[in-house]
Structure formats: structure tokens, C-alpha cells
Amino acid sequence: MKKFLAMVMVFISFVFIFSDEWQDKYDQVNGYYMTKDYENGYKKGLDLLDYTLKEYDSKSSEAGHAYNILGLISKNLDKFDESETYFIKSITAFKSVNDEKNVAIIKTNLGGLYFDYFYDDLAKENLEDAVIWFEQNNSTGNYDENLINPYYYLYEIYNYSYDYPKAIDYMKKLITVEEKSYGKADTLVGIDYRSLAWLYLYSEDYNNAEKNFEKSLSILKVNGGKNKNALGVTYNDYGVLYDYKQDYQKALDYYKKAVEIFEKSNNNIELANTYNNMGLAYEKLNKKSDAKKYYQKAYDISIKEYGENNEETKKYKENLDRIK
């Protein structure tokens, strides 16, 4: 499965009020799900589904909600096949009662499942279907938060496939709805401006990369996340931009700002990466003693954190050996 640092919301289907007994059973399952007690949630979810199919129909709204919550729980239990089956049955049920909103919600969930397991074509199909419905019905902005997940997933898919124009398009859309939902100075917005900058950097559009790194900095200098680590990452990444532009001294200026933050916060993983970047910059400036010093720092941290067989450790060791 793909793992992410960025927070991704989960979408519970939109539940109207049903019979008290069914609602009580559903609420119990949802309670287990929300508290991450997936084992008990799964057991009670099967009981809910059994009750639903006896009292209602497999193509009822009640069945759609029961299938969806079981799909979400199964996903968290790493039961891909079951999760896929439940989401597909949920979509079928909601289509049967012409509930297009919940169809779009479940397609987002199904697309997220496919994305996590690297079925990117199936993920795109479902996520883009969801985006079309939400965008067409979002004239008042009431579906902004429903668009956050599919926009994020689609940005990741197109980024992974090196389709940077489409990745840029979805990241811009994501930032727009995040600014409306969370505020323009939110830490997550600052982080996503940094992601947008990287897309421009990969596209060799250095002017737009710089503009978006500046936007990221302006937000993260105020709301830099825990121990300012998000700000530190942007300083490091801004340094990489200047490395690409072969302005190695300016790159070092930003790396040093990142180091100051990471040293204070004991963020050794990011610190090792920035030390290595500093080594690269000094090497390109033909300052081999300084390059060796920072390669050594990166290697010392990495071998302690990861061990000698880790790919990052090996990379730092290769850089260090090249200078010796």
C-alpha cells in the first residue's frame, strides 16, 4: 500500500435518518470505525449488513450505507478484495435509488482504495467521475470538502506518472478549496504551495517554482507546523531550486536556515537530507573539505537512524567515499 504524510480525509456516506433500530446499529458500527476499532467494527458491520438485507433490499439506501462502512473498515484491515466488493455494491445500491451524491462519495472511496494499491487507471476512472459530479453541483461551494480527496489523489497519480501539467491543474484546484475550507494561512495550504513549486521545478519552470516556494514560505513562517518543521522543509526545497539554477551559494543560504530548524527540533531524518544537500553544493563549489564534512554528518545520522543497508545511508556513503 502507498503511505502518505499528508492527511487524507475519509468519506462516510451521507446518511439520512432511517428507522431507529437500523440507525442504532449503523451508529454503533460507525463509532467503532471512527475510534479505529476496526476488528469490532467489522464484526458489527457484518451484523448490520445481515439485518439490512433481511429488513430492506440489497439495492436500498440502507444497503448502500452498510456496504460503504464495511468497505472503509475492510480497507483499514488491508482486505482489498472485500473492500472493493463492498464499495462496488454500495455504488450499485445508491445508483438504484438515484442518489448521485453518495455515488460520487463512494467512487472517491473506491478510487482511494485503488490508488493505495497502485491500480492507478481504475483510481483515475472513479476519482474523475466523482470530480465531475461534485464540480457540476458545486456552484455554492457546498461540496468543496468533498473535492479535497479526489483532487489530492489525482495530483499524486499524475505526479507519479510524470504528467506535470495535469498534476499542476489538480494541485491548484486542491489549494483553492483548501484556502476556502481552512483559510489562506493554514499550514496545509503552505505545504501544498511547496508541492506545487516542486511540480514547476520538475517542469523546469523555475520562475513559477520560485513564486510558489515564496508563497509557501510566507505562510509557513507564521504557521510552520510542529517545531517549524514544515518551514524547514520548504527552506531545504527552496535551496534545491537554487541548486538546479546552479546558484550554489544561495542554495547553501537556504540549507543553513533549514538546518537551524531541524537541529532545534531534533528532526534527524530531514537534517541528514539537508546536510547531504549542503555537501553536494560545497562539492560543486569545489570546496571538498566542507563537502566531506557535511557528507559525513549525513552519513553518521543515517547509519544511526536506518542502519548501513538503507538506501539513504548507501547514498550518503557513496557521496562521502567520492570525496575521500
Question: What does this entry show, briefly?
Answer:
Keywords: Repeat, TPR repeat. This protein is mainly α and 324 residues long.
Topology record:
Blueprint: H1 20-34, H2 38-55, H3 61-76, H4 80-96, H5 100-116, H6 120-136, H7 144-160, H8 164-182, H9 187-202, H10 206-220, H11 229-244, H12 248-265, H13 268-284, H14 288-305, H15 311-323
Helix pairs in contact: 1-2, 1-3, 2-3, 3-4, 4-5, 5-6, 5-7, 6-7, 7-8, 8-9, 9-10, 9-11, 10-11, 11-12, 11-13, 12-13, 13-14, 14-15
Architecture overview:
The chain is an all-alpha fold. Helices cover 77% and strands 0% of the residues. It has helices spanning 20-34, 38-55, 61-76, 80-96, 100-116, 120-136, 144-160, 164-182, 187-202, 206-220, 229-244, 248-265, 268-284, 288-305, 311-323. Helix 2 packs antiparallel against helix 3, helix 4 packs antiparallel against helix 5 and helix 7 (144-160) packs antiparallel against helix 8.
